[in-house]
Write a structure and sequence with these properties.
The complex is a heterodimer of chains A (about 280) and B (about 170). By secondary structure, chain A is an alpha+beta fold. Chain A contains seven helices and twelve strands. Chain A folds into two domains: about 30 residues; about 240 residues, Rod shape-determining protein MreC, domain 2 (Thrombin, subunit H). In chain A, helix 5 packs antiparallel against helix 6. Chain A starts with a helix and ends with a helix. In chain B, a hairpin with a 3-residue loop joins strand 1 and strand 2. The longest helix of chain B is centred in the C-terminal third of the chain and has 28 residues. Chain B is globular. Chain B has one domain. Chain B has about 170 residues and is mainly α. Classes of the chains: A alpha+beta (about 280), B mainly alpha (about 170). At the A-B interface, helix 2, helix 3 and helix 4 of A face helix 3, helix 4 and helix 6 of B.
Chain lengths: ~280, ~170
């Protein structure tokens, strides 16, 4: 008995080692679990605050190019505003009922918020982005995120002041897309390698499109409005079973340089979700 | 004793911040990452008990994980490093060296210190990359990542050592 005890005392670091490795492995395995991730990610307040302080400093270095992009974006928005005004005026001229329809549809649609990226990773197979808006700002899960260049990702989880975005560069991310000019839609999925490219999987063979065609959001899910740009088709290949096409898409967003994003929420989302859920329950 | 502990805590916080704010953002060619916080583990004094080493390494890994969204991965790899450090260091401690010493270029001489830290660093990175990919199906990619990351980290280790041993 004494020898066993002595043995255990002498080798106690083995037990500590096993214990600590055990804890680490539990953490690794539960990494995929949504709830436990909340504790240990940069959406947590301590890490989030430090990251936003550092981003404050960081953002000064890219102010100039950021400004140019914003000015350009402003210009296009002004053009669009002018166009919409013209349309509205034409409609007004046509009849009052049409104007009523037009404004009503607008109010039913999407609303936008802006946010800043405070943390961003590129080198893993499952990347995440942290932004500085959370539940307190009306941002919650399943809202779409895009920058002035194109789609960035979908909000994965939110804490009070921060949210984590599941970007296009995450194996778990699937965004419903459409090739501009054709009506067939398909999912965009990342293969975990090059951060500049993603893949459209399960493209139907009868769909007509060419290399260089633009890929946009489909607008079928209530997360993104239709026609937000995603990328450009680079090259086409057959899927492994030969039933579908697989297209390599060059993403418009440069994930290593993106810093300001817009968040889009849908007023009709809950209604659409409930309707779709009630169908599943039947 | 208290002074030493305070200094150790200060180094701990500083290294975690430097690691997550600067070095974790370096990804050369998509393969090489720098983990300079393991210098802390490499340079703990010779007479640190293995239990103490394990706890420091684990805490270090956990703090870095918290900021990098990788719960457990750094903690597991650092704990492994903490576990093998003492036997490794014993193998490099030559005769005529004081009983308790801080591993460094001055106490171990450059050549021994470099071989010792290369071994520590590569053990750490091998564990880290295997855990991150959770597979060994792509050994070439693993090898490139481990070698390039070890080289990059060693570059910073040598620079730090160069300046601290001249003081």
């Amino acid at each position: 008995m004494q020898t066993i005890l002595n043995f255990l005392i002498k080798h106690n670091h083995w037990f500590l080692f096993t214990l600590l490795e055990g804890i680490s492995f539990v953490l690794i395995v539960s990494f995929n679990n949504y709830q436990s991730a909340v504790m240990f990610t940069s959406a947590n307040n301590v890490a989030g605050n430090i990251y936003s302080a550092i981003t404050d400093v960081d953002s000064y270095f890219s102010l100039k190019s950021e400004n140019e992009i914003l000015t350009e974006h402003n210009r296009t928005l002004l053009e669009e505003l002018e166009q919409t005004r013209n349309e509205l005026n034409t409609l007004k001229d046509n009849n009052l009922l049409a104007v009523h329809e037009f404004t009503r549809n607008k109010a039913d649609g999407f609303y936008y918020k802006s946010a800043r990226i405070v943390n961003n990773s590129l080198n893993k197979t499952d990347n995440y982005i942290t932004i500085d808006k959370g539940i307190n700002d009306g941002v919650h899960e399943e809202m779409g995120v895009f920058s002035e260049k194109g789609v960035v990702g979908i909000i994965y989880q939110s804490s009070a002041n921060y949210s984590i975005v599941l970007p296009l560069l995450n194996g778990k991310s699937k965004v419903n897309c459409r090739v501009k000019g054709s009506n067939s839609f398909c999912a965009l999925q990342w293969d975990g390698n090059d951060t500049r490219y993603s893949y459209l999987v399960d493209l139907p063979r009868y769909a007509a499109f060419e290399m260089g065609d633009t890929v946009v959001t489909s607008g079928f899910s209530s997360i993104f409005p239709a026609d937000i740009p995603v990328g450009r088709i680079q090259n086409l290949e057959e899927s492994e079973d030969g039933l579908f096409y697989r297209a390599k898409v060059e993403l418009f967003v440069d994930f290593s340089a993106v810093s300001n994003v817009f968040i889009v929420g849908s007023n009709g989302k809950n209604e659409q979700d409930e309707l779709e859920k009630s169908l599943e329950e039947k | 004793m208290t002074k030493n502990t305070l200094i150790r805590f200060r180094n701990f916080v500083l290294l975690v911040l430097v690691q997550v704010l600067i070095f974790s953002r370096i990804h050369l060619f998509g393969y090489a990452t720098a983990c300079i916080y393991i210098i802390f583990i490499i340079k703990l004094p010779r007479h640190t008990t293995r239990n103490e080493l394990l706890i420091w390494s684990f805490l270090f890994g956990l703090c870095v994980d918290m900021f990098c969204n990788t719960p457990g991965i750094n903690a597991a790899a650092a704990t492994l490093l903490g576990f093998v450090r003492n036997p490794l260091l014993s193998a490099f401690a030559h005769k005529g060296i004081p009983d308790d010493f801080i591993p460094g270029a001055r106490s171990l001489k450059w050549s021994r210190y470099i071989v010792y830290s290369v071994l520590c660093t590569s053990i750490f990175f091998t564990a880290l990359f295997i855990l991150e990919a959770f597979t060994v199906a792509n050994p070439l990619m693993l090898l490139i990542s481990v070698v390039s990351s070890t080289l990059l980290t060693m570059l910073f280790t040598i620079v730090t050592e160069f300046f601290s041993s001249r003081q």
